[in-house]
């Protein structure tokens, strides 16, 4: 552990296809996002948190009530801060009980991910936390060698991190699908540049999900085929992403764009569109870019594919690298073992993208230009982190 | 026959749901349009057209070649005028051969329907022609009694008109579905007010149909469910239209609107949308009105539902009337016997409609406010026709 302590990060996720359909038993495709949560763990000052829980299993209502009381969190608390503290307490205690005491630690967390935007910020947090706590009590190794910028844990240790992150997710979300923590753990090598746009239109996922269900009950013969079509889109998209690195060719990109357009229409059909999202799609379309909503819809975030430049296509063969289970399909079991996915894209059509971003901001939206297909949970040397991140972690 | 001769009219048609899907074996829903073609038949000056064709069946290539030569029409003629003359010649000869000579006649035709806009103008013409020619050679009765404004033929005579109109359609279109002439013959009692908007964007039906087929072959698992959903929309719409007159309630109208929205998205998915149609939908949506493309798409016409006013809903029970086979479903056999359809709607939300029309015209589009669900082939007294129509028929 360096003077900066243990530095861990995990990516957020974004749903490419299958939001809502997944609630009705269809496949969905979630990918790692190039926006991450960072965690720094340092030895603590000696005050130790030492509670033993007999027979640690999944968090029970009773256990959580005790922890809420201990931490001074209201029984019905739903603020991200309170839930994050609760997840930390639970994971600390449960990991201690299983692998031996977690030593007194000082933990700082900072994230590039907005909370409550459907971008897997809570999973990125619990993945970081699981990695740090398991490392602190020596349940997993420290794969970062001197002089290395970053390192990742071996397969079986990532499985352990993922399973504990999932327990943390259960504390925060009650009944999560397990996809967000899988994406945060396994990640994916860089593949596509995207624009993530927050319409800032607030919405209730619960109301939207109920609306879709109601529409399916109202028009089953019309709506069920739409869900089937969305299912096929997720599978087609996954096939295309799998095929891309082994045979990178410009023909794949328009297919991804076409699938985006089709699914956006489908999402409007099932009733989770919103005029702000229509506007987002129209603005990007006017610059030749293809968008769809991502997540719950009804406002919230949209995702825009940024096409690869000519140069990047020429250097694709050099960019191909292989990394372990990258794409998590929301269908259970989640992670379909996806072969190498590397489609490192250089900046392309920068003028169109800049113009689109300007127009989107003029609508009052907020944009991030980032990648999908980021590495999963990662151990960092302090020198490999941006000064901004280190500074933020020191402040917190 | 009055001094004005025999006056016949037949309505155009508009596709409510199922365009394109019908090419792939799905149901579609076509309804009569409140825009009509009028035909006046008067005894001729004595020059008689007398050609006997042995064994008259469907028009053969050889027969049509002879007729083309006779009328001085180029072998590959496709102009509406040439095809109309050809259909007239064929029907004249074939009906003469079957029912005895058509006497020397003078025929004038005038239409409110634009040609080549997918609104069934050719079928409205052949329906009028079939009725007039069958009447001239006494194969059908003259149901119009003195002092009556309009009259319709009895069931079995309409069947005969329809079958001859279909032969005329074959001359004009080669391989028509038979829906247009069925709608033109049977029609439907007034049911819904609509706005028909021509984007004036030219398109090739052939290219659009081929594009849909290509897309289905490219993404069968994604596209076939969309066709299934469109099929279910046609059926659901038909059920709603059937249910409306027996139990008229404001709850039906939003369903029709919802089905329009869903199908418009589906038509975009199968690739027959167009920015001009998106604009049409957006403009009408801004006035609370729901639209979809109708026909081939890729430009062409859009149809907008105009909602019933409060008053019309209160007087619905008085407006209910029953008429024979009204809705023609494109599924073969075409005309699903549809029960009473009468939902006479008074002018509603006139301000919103006027504002929408103004905005659509500002886009360079052309609008007609009309009804769907018009009476089928009808015999008129001269006093029941608008002066404009009589004048047009005298001019021609």
TrEMBL record, chains A, B:
Q: What class of enzyme is it?
A: transferase
Among SUPFAM superfamilies, the record links this protein to: GHMP Kinase, C-terminal domain, Ribosomal protein S5 domain 2-like
Does this UniProt record's set of keywords contain Aminoacyl-tRNA synthetase?
Answer: no
Function, as annotated, reads: Catalyzes the phosphorylation of mevalonate to mevalonate 5-phosphate, a key step in isoprenoid and cholesterol biosynthesis.
Alphabetized GO MF terms: ATP binding; metal ion binding; mevalonate kinase activity
Q: Which GO terms of the cellular component aspect does the record hold?
A: cytosol
Query: Does Metal-binding show up as a keyword for this record?
Result: yes
| Superkingdom of the source species | Eukaryota
**Primary location class:** cytoplasm
- GHMP kinase N-terminal domain: which residues? 92-182
Q: Give the UniProt subcellular location, in the record's own words.
A: Cytoplasm
Official protein name in the record: Mevalonate kinase
Tell me which stretches of the chain form a coiled coil.
none
InterPro entries from the entry?
A: GHMP_kinase_C_dom, GHMP_kinase_C_sf, GHMP_kinase_N_dom, GHMP_knse_ATP-bd_CS, Mev_gal_kin, Ribosomal_Su5_D2-typ_SF, Ribsml_uS5_D2-typ_fold_subgr
Its Enzyme Commission number(s) read 2.7.1.36
The reaction(s) catalysed by this protein are: (R)-mevalonate + ATP = (R)-5-phosphomevalonate + ADP + H(+)
Q: Which family does it belong to?
A: Belongs to the GHMP kinase family. Mevalonate kinase subfamily.
Naturally occurring in which organism (per UniProt): Bambusicola thoracicus (Chinese bamboo-partridge)
Q: Where is the GHMP kinase C-terminal domain?
A: 258-306
From the UniProt record, give one GO term of the biological process aspect: isopentenyl diphosphate biosynthetic process, mevalonate pathway
Question: What keywords sit in the KW lines?
Answer: ATP-binding, Cholesterol biosynthesis, Cholesterol metabolism, Cytoplasm, Kinase, Lipid biosynthesis, Lipid metabolism, Magnesium, Metal-binding, Nucleotide-binding, Steroid biosynthesis, Steroid metabolism, Sterol biosynthesis, Sterol metabolism, Transferase
| Known pathway | Isoprenoid biosynthesis; isopentenyl diphosphate biosynthesis via mevalonate pathway; isopentenyl diphosphate from (R)-mevalonate: step 1/3
């Amino acid at each position: 552990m360096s003077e900066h302590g243990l530095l861990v990060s995990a990516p957020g996720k974004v749903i490419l296809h299958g939001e809502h359909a997944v609630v009705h038993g269809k496949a969905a495709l979630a990918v790692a996002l190039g926006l991450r949560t960072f965690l720094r763990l340092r030895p603590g000052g000696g005050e130790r948190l030492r509670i033993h829980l007999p027979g640690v299993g999944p968090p029970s209502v009773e256990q959580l009530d005790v922890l809420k009381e201990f931490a001074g969190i209201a029984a019905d608390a739903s603020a991200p801060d309170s839930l994050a503290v609760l997840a930390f307490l639970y994971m600390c205690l449960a990991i201690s009980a299983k692998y031996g005491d977690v030593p007194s630690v000082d933990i700082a967390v900072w994230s590039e991910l907005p909370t409550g935007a459907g971008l897997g910020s809570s999973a990125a947090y619990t993945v970081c936390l699981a990695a740090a706590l398991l490392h602190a009590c020596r349940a997993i190794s420290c794969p970062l060698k001197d002089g290395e910028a970053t390192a990742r844990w071996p397969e079986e240790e990532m499985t352990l991190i993922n399973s504990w992150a999932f327990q943390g997710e259960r504390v925060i979300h009650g009944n999560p699908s397990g996809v967000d923590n899988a994406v945060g753990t396994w990640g994916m090598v860089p593949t596509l540049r995207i624009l993530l746009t927050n319409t800032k239109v607030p919405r209730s996922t619960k109301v939207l999900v109920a609306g879709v269900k109601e529409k399916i009950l109202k028009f089953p013969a019309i709506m069920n085929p739409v869900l089937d079509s969305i299912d096929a889109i997720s599978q087609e998209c996954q096939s295309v992403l799998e095929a891309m690195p082994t045979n990178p060719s410009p023909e794949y990109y328009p297919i991804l764009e076409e699938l985006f357009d089709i699914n956006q229409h489908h999402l409007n059909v099932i009733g989770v569109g919103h005029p702000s999202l229509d506007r987002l799609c129209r603005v990007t379309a006017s610059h030749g870019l293809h968008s769809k909503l991502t997540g719950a819809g009804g406002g919230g975030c949209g995702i825009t594919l940024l096409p690869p430049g000519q140069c990047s296509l020429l250097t694709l063969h050099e960019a191909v690298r292989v990394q372990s289970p990258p794409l998590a399909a929301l269908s259970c079991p989640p992670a379909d073992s996806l072969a190498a996915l590397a489609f490192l894209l250089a900046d392309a059509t920068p003028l169109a993208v800049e113009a689109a971003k300007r127009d989107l901001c003029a609508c009052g939206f907020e944009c991030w230009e980032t990648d999908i297909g980021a590495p999963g949970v990662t151990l960092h040397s302090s020198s490999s982190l941006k000064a901004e991140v280190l500074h933020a972690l020191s402040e917190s």
